[in-house]
Amino acid sequence: MEFTWTFQSFDELTPAELYSILQLRIEVFSVEQNCVYQDADGKDQDSFHLCGWDDKVLVAYCRLLPAGLSYDHPSIGRVVTSPHYRKGGYGRLLMQKAIAQSAAQFHDSVIIISAQLYLKTFYESLGFEPVSEMYLEDNIPHIKMLHKG
Fold first, then answer.
1. How far apart, in whole angstroms, are the C-alpha atoms of residue 60 and residue 71?
2. Does residue 128 form part of some domain?
3. How many domains does the chain have?
4. Can you give the residue range of the structural domain that contains 46?
């Protein structure tokens, strides 16, 4: 399957694109994971948004945050794949593109993520290393991980 990939600042997103992003994030992070938290955290406006589209359907998404917004180095967050497209390798493809795009956009080879603990092995396979003990974020076990391009 061939996707269209877009990489945009918040101001470049159309209302329809933003709606799709928020819809997918709520579908997975709030409804599927049964987690009540403030998704609209005020960081989207200063982030860049990487989207994988199957026509007008958002398949995979993450946001790239510049250094200083969440951590001392750039970070990747809100990594999500549509439940209808899982097991197709799209999460790995999304993260490979995000890592490359982060280095190109921010000119920093270090990336920090706050990963859900159950995905630790997945992120390790992409070159991330754990740099913290497990901690709870929104009552879900997480671990801070570092990628040194």
1. 23
2. no
3. 1
4. 4-108
Burial class (CB in 10 A: 0-12, 13-18, 19+), 80: buried
d(CA 90, CA 92): 5
Report d(CA 25, CA 148) in Å as an integer.
27
Please choose, from the candidates 93, 129, 125, 94, the residue with its C-alpha nearest in 3D space to the C-alpha of residue 111: 129
Calculate the dihedral angle through the C-alpha atoms of 62, 68, 74, 78, rounding to the nearest 10 degrees: -20
97-115 in b/e form (b: 16+ CB < 10 A) is bbbebbbebbeeebbbbbb
pTM: 0.95
| 120 within some domain | no
Q: What is the pLDDT of residues 1-54, one digit of tens each?
A: 678 999 999 999 999 999 999 999 999 998 888 888 888 999 999 999 999 999
On whether the CB atoms of residues 140 and 35 are closer than 8 A, the answer is: yes
DSSP symbol at 87? T
